[in-house]
## 1
Amino acid sequence: MITLIPRQSASTGWQIATPVMAVLATMVTGGLLFALLGHDPVAAIRTIFWDPLFGPAASYSRPQLLIKAAPLILIASGLAIGFRAGIWNIGAEGQYIIGGLTGAAVALALYPLEAWWLFPLMVAAGLAGGWAWGMIPAMLRNWFGASEILVSLMLVYVAQRIAAWMAFGPMRNPDGMGFPGSRNLQQYPSAANPELIAGTGAHWGVVAAAAAVLATWFLMSRHIRGFHIRAAGTAPRAARFAGVRPQTLVAFCLGLSGALAGAAGLFEVAGPAGQVTDKLGVGYGFTAIIVAFLGRLHPVGILLAGLLLALTYIGGELAQLTMSLPAATVQVFQGMLLFFLLGFDVLTRYQIRRRRTA
Amino acid sequence: MIDPLSVFLLLISASTPILFAALGELVVERAGVLNLGVEGMMITGALAGFAAAYASGNPFLGFLVAALAGATISLLFAALTQVFLANQVASGLALTLFGLGLAAMFGKPFEGVKAPAMPIGPLRINWIVWLGLVMVPVVWWFLNRTRRGLILRGVGENHEAAHALGYDVRLTRLAAIAFGGAMAGVGGAFISIATVLQWTEGMTAGAGWIALAIVVFSNWTAPGVLAGAWLFGGVTVLQLRLQAAGVAVPVQLLSMAPYLATIIVLVAISARQKYSRRAGAAAPGSLGTNFHALR
């Protein structure tokens, strides 16, 4: 008979080991899944996890790593702070879309003005849009006790429809011969979010993601607000006696994660995506949830997890091209990864003991 | 001329997927488990049911397979939360993300084919719609008038006390989760087999999340779930009617209506539960917390 004995505090060794175990288990299970679908499992795993970095077409795919990792890390950094406090923003996808729209709106409204302050203003608008969209569930929870999980998620569907409406209606390119989609911001020098160092894929979003990792590390380990957040997550009652106001934390966490997601949306619209379309949201907001958990809600972990999941995106696209694997393979991988991580996590919180049955 | 009866028939048909999923989730939550994987289980059922109905030519076999598929995938969540004691919110999200991916992956060969026709049941109402309506009193009766229902509610209200009385908390929750999965699977299959008659990726479009909101709206009762599902069905039908009537509002904005209505209803009911001078929310006491027996 096997029993679980709760640990006094989470085991640090297992906290680092379990994400690695989850990745390995995902590779093995994924390989079995590919074999089941009639593909060579070893080749498929190599195509997804190895070839994007070191394969024959790596010079093309390597810059993609930073392009895909930046929004994931930016969003996950914000989400992790809320998750630490038990505040579940799962609508980052919606905040990402709205941030992209508000940021692009500034550029489209001022077109064809050229000025150095245009791009910073767009970033500010993206941050504000995401923040505002995140504050809706925060306020509805604080005022009425509505679940922020359900409200933030519902707002994703609303945001997707606003994006579609914008792409087909108000933001449609007047010179676009009737095609849906806005002007291409990459062809608008003051509004574009260009590659800063040629061949690396690094744009301003990558800079912002790096800054977010540093800032959230500082917040969580050096700032009183971070201490309050951690206290509210582990011992809500004690935190309340210590003067932590839950309503302030809800507004802070949802607002911050919304703003970061909004900025990620703006960097994408002005950079890699280039324009507002009805397909503005590509799932970064949901994948970022996995990044946050896989990174153990820790800034450094999130950095590594973001890079790994970016790799699965690129590898998935590569496998789609070279092995004609279905596009959804990546989603399945990401879901499996989270499953394994949550399962293995029992090792960090419990000791496994064998009990003799009398 | 709008025929009220035909509008009503559209309404109960539009509310059926949500009704199934929400009734299932109601039982799960009354057992003290919050399963946010409803969307993932629904899409799994939508695909598995559609595939089985298409392959066999029998839509009812499709619903049976959908129930089995929904229950099977829900066991992943059950294993994580009941055996490995993982966080329920995160595990439910994982189930949704995994289910959406899995269905998209295996659904490719079924894109573009049509489902076999459903035979029409009594009073021009689909048999599965009838089944959904019958399940409302059945779930109510089970929860409130049977011994097993009492045990299930006890487990959900206070798992420590239920365990001390000698009831198997884990087994009760396992059974509830599997039931919830089967119901979500049938709800999802209703969308693919009886409404859209096709398989498309992501076709549940948030229905699972709306079902979760309706459980809150219902104040954790079966009749409340029916009311919530009908309210949602009404908004959907109204929105489609307005689209068809060519109202001068962009289609994309009209199609937001179900989601906005869900938020409004959720806020209204949460506010009532929060500020009402009467008992307030009837949420099960142990909802969302894991149980670990040391002895």
## 2
Amino acid sequence: MSTDKPIDKVEDKLYGLLAEYESPGALIEAAREVRDAGYTKFDCHSPFPVHGIDPAMGIKPTILPMVTWGAGITGTGLAILMQTWMNNWTYPWNIGGKPLFSLPMQIPIAFEVTVLLAAFATFFGMWGLNKLPQVWHPLFGNDNFVDKATCHGFFVAIEADDPKFDQEGTTATLEKAGATAVEAVRYETSKKHRALPNGVIAFMALSMCLALVPFAYIAKQRASTSDKPHMHINPNMDFQTKNKPQTASDMFADGRAARLPVAGSVARGELKADDHFYRGLVAGEWATEFPKEITLSAETMERGENRFNIYCSPCHGLTGAGTGMINQRADAVGATATGWVAPSNIGQESFAKQPHGQLFNTITHGIRSMPSYGAQIKEADRWAIVFYLRALQRSAHSTIDDVPAGEKPAIR
Amino acid sequence: MSSSDTILHSEEKITAGPGVAKVKSAGFVGGLILLLAMTGWGFAVGDGMQRFFHGYLVAFTYFNSIALGALFFVLIMHLMGAKWSVNMRRIAEILTQTFPLLALLSVVIWLPMLLGNDNLYIWSSEKFMSENHLVHAKGAYLNPVFFAARQIIYYVLWIGLSRYFYRTSVKQDEGGDDDATRRMAKWAAPAMFGFAFSCAFFAFDMLMSIDPEWFSTMFGVVYFAGCCISIFALMALIPLALQRSGRLVHSITVEHYHDIGKLLFAFVFFWGYVAFSQFMLIWGANIPEETGYFWKRWFESEGVMGIWGKVTLVMLVMHFLIPFVLLMSRHSKRKLQVLAAFSIWMLAWHYLDLYWQVMPALNNHHTFGLAERSATGSYIPMDLGLWVGMGLLFMGYAAGKFRNVNLIPIKDPGLKQSLKFENQ
């Protein structure tokens, strides 16, 4: 539709003036002059982004980066929430003994969702800020614009809505800025003109219907039964060439697929090569010193007391005198007469003389009717208990002189 | 091509001032004194040489990463036909001229090994290789002779490449031969292949083999990320320093710094991406011979996080999260004080990155015990002394290369576009 000729429809309205320029440089120059002339409602059109057009037109920096940032952060948060919800509440599943909330494994998904939301926000945010799509934009009615704007034309369009717009003055401004041609652009105001073509509507309707087909198929399959075996979409994954535990295999002489570790294998961290720390031995003799890993501090002493009270005091009693609840009960029911071996008094002379390593060994393996505690109490804690035993042994031989002067009245 | 006067600003100073000679001699003297002092310390204390070699390896791979980054900068700009960076390319070209010094410094790593010293790489000990079944097959690759041969190959390649691109570019300054630009672009493609392989294998040899049982195909890329971080940080700092002394004041604008800042930001993220990818796959698969590497760099004993675990977290925050968030904005990249501050920041944390890779391997040299951890205490001044000493030596050597050469490729056909470059 050329606007040179008068249009004989009543709904026609002037959109504005369209000026053509020869080069990107001329376009920037023109944009600057139009801006300086005080116009605000105008736009530049070029086949490719022209560097420097934004400041020339006086456009403020876009807020789009903030939109992208916000969407990106939202994506990170949502992805982590989603995975936590799935892994911890709706479908908790132990994978390789890892905690249900395993942040490292959530990062890839969080990363992808961050990128996805940021990209969508940028793309659609750009549409929103530019008020796209504008398939009925008045300039599309101009043949010259349609021919050149996407290949080799550089245009400035000033809208008639601009407060400074008047057809003759604006034309003069544009021509003064070096326009090779200036023409008025008119458009039809009727809604009918803006309607989408029937073909486009039909295509959209059809693709929407087709998009529902997979869901309809899934719904049908879920609601019905079938006597056929299920489909194998990925046979490589369904039928893997691997051996499962408890199955047969021709590869090995004994015909079993499951194999034992190589003889002499030690799991990482289980070598326990340090005789002193793990066995209480130094050069084959009971250690008389604590191992270097144990710090002889008030903290260790408290740890030892804590462990002693949990594991040892039921039999040996809180003071180590062998008068724990179990022993009291055994006495009460008369078990002593029928072979109950009373727990030892840890404070007695013979134990006080035992080296640290021997006491450690007794805790680890037990002695006489005392069971072994090696499985329940870790090495460092066993050493802490030995440390505490030394304190108990000292207290068994304490006299009133050991009590600080200030505390004596309280004891009497 | 028109003469340089019409392109560059008429009052532009394009050669370095007399200051570089001072930097050169001060760097050489200070660097050599420090390095010798640290060597003396290493010899004087019981297991000091073991620590010396580890600290030396950190410092050496650090400065090698700068030169490699500079070579990458030159190659990628030629390969992509980048115009914006033409005005800065010469500075990178000059930095690649430090490879002869680095080749000399690398001898300290492999020569003692050839003479039977196994203080650094545990695989250079025959006892270890014969007793440790996990590394039998690697013996063909990990042995002192082949290691030394590979180092020589790398440095021959790097010195050759850096000389070709430097000399062709400098020669163009005289004649204004436009065809030289095309030739360099053509050779940049095969050179990039050579760079990629040599950079990755250098990282495998120098850094990854420090834990010989461990392996990661991502490792070379992590080192490459470090190379890029260090060069883009320096490509902000060196031009800023030159401009402060009155050089290139009209030719390098905030637009160029902005782009350098973008690349620094990109590689901060790239480092985080690849370093985490390496960790995540190993963490997820949980195979003993792979997790051992990270175990050592996290735990002190079973279930107890040690000093290296704290260092790992510090790196996550300092090397990645803080610069990632704060460098994201356009404003922080265009504000030159901020960009300079982050460049220095990244150069510092890049050192810690390499330190974190090398130092926990000291454990290899003691009997393997869970409760044992490497002695990070008293030797730290030695590590830092080696870093600073080698840094001074590197700076002095590089400063010498800045003399008698134009700081900008005055006859490059892309220079005009470069000077006019503006970001959108």
